[in-house]
Amino acid sequence: MTAGEPESESGPLQVRGTVLNVRKVDAYHAITIVAPGIAARFKPGQFVALAVGGPETSMVLRRTFSIYDVRPDHGGTVEFVFAAGGPGTRWLSERRARDVLDLTGPLGRPFPVPRDPVSCLLVGGGYGSAPLFALADRLRERRCSVDFLLGAASGDRVFGALTARRTGRSATITTVDGSLGVRGIVTDMLGQVIHEARTDVIYACGPMPMLRQVTALARRYDIPVQVAVEESMACGVGVCMTCVLPVVGSDGITRMVRSCVDGPVFRGEQVRWDDIGTIPFDAFGAPGWESRARRGPRQPAGHSGASQAASRAAGQTGQTGQTAAARHPGPVRRPGHGS
Amino acid sequence: MAPDLRTRLGNVELPNPILTASGCASSGRELAQFIDVSRIGAIVTKSVMLAPRAGRPTPRMAETSSGMLNSIGLQGPGIDAFLQRDLPWLLSRGARAVVSIAGHTVEEYAELAARLSDAAGVTALEVNISCPNVEHRGQVFACDATDAAAVIAAVRARTRYDIPVFAKLSPDVTDIVAIARSCVSAGADGLSMINTLLGMAIDTETMRPVLAGLTGGLSGPAIRPVAVRCIWQVREALPDVPIIGMGGVMTGRDALELMLAGASMVSIGTAIFHDPSACARILRELDDELARRGIERLGEVVGLAHETKTSGRAKGNVSRPA
Question: What ipTM goes with this model?
């Protein structure tokens, strides 16, 4: 891991990396690829985008994975964790040592790290915990204390429980089936861990519903939270515009931003969780937004009052932001409605 | 010996025929991390509209066999931001800028053409007419010869004389030649084809459409035969009209196929998502494909497949070194 490199040498690279090994880790796979330039430029929270299926592949879109670890061996290696759920990831799980893969990285905005030695809580869901371990190393370099709160459906799906227990000041594990740690989900334990660890900052990575809930609880405790979001991407480099979500900027204006280049790390409270899968009617460029914009931007901390059900309905039936807005004219979403 | 890859975009000469496809390269900035944007023929920008636009809700994308569906909904910052930020950046990098424009009324297209003609450095306009026409019950301009011609005539009238205007055609029509003729009669200097095909995917787990926008544009290698057919038909009918070909080109061989059908330039779209340096790679591969066949000038292959078999062979033989 390197820090403070000049801007021109921190951008992503496209390389052909040789597979060092693919191993099974409980319910997941971990793959290590020799990719010196990417390893040198990596900062925790960043990801790589891989072409899958080999030459003449019928799978035209890249697969993106958060980087779990980089090591100096072989000039620099990159490791990431994935679940072999679809044809692309299944193909990836069948790679062997010396196979060559086309990957781009490191991509995206990394986790910002605090200047002062503070108490950090790292919350991970499923293999979403993977990028948190490199972050933990980085935080410890900054003399921050690191507590882990990891959860999944079952024990074999909690990625890195052992490492968390070995390296964290504390490690709390939750599983839905109770096969490891406490029975339940991470947010059941969040309040207790925050109290015990006297948490100053939360970092979270995992499924979107988890991130949404972690953000809501962090707000209740008035703790800043950085989340790494999961949105499906086609390119990973900012050209396809498929991975957008509504995010409130520092100017108070909501924009549909790309999670690949403007994220994947966002301040939790800037993401309009209830409006994901919709175009909020006050978003920059939403139909008729200009006339509403004149009434003043919404507050950065403004919380959308639109019900999640309404947002979901709009997303599922494919209504545009305009129809969604027309159906749910929102005194609750009126500009300037802060919390 | 390296083949001569120069080609003409209307009255503008390009160093080579490989362009980005609109909507697949944003305004070039992101790709500049991977390729030298001044080395390819031109950057065709994401379609610019008058006002900023948030686009459609997510999910906006679905991968399909050898292709993908997208329903982005023309998200973009609008013409002001484009002129202020994106165009100057492209020019500062020595890239040639072909600006794609889109609107919902004939007047919107015309205004965009006027604004872009006033700005220095626009190499050409590509008119994305695959938008619903709000003045005609949402009928897509590209699907109606009269509507398409109205847009092209208005754009041509408001575009500076030395900026070529290309009409981008949709394959979702009964007779693409009729639309092509109509656009050329209205003043189009050339034609771009093909835009995406309208498609749809349903998730069999959730049993609901995958895309929030329900339908999306199908692109990628799955549609290449459709592109070849459309280019072939239009070239057959209008042999003197320059064509920018696009539709599922992944390799230099694919680019050559579209050129044999009649394209004198080839845009690279979905391949960029698969490989951000695809344009540079395909340019290299095309160079190799031509050199391997002993072809000295790109112009020799444009529309070559239309020649009768014997004359085609003869031409091949003549250009092959002894």
Answer: 0.90
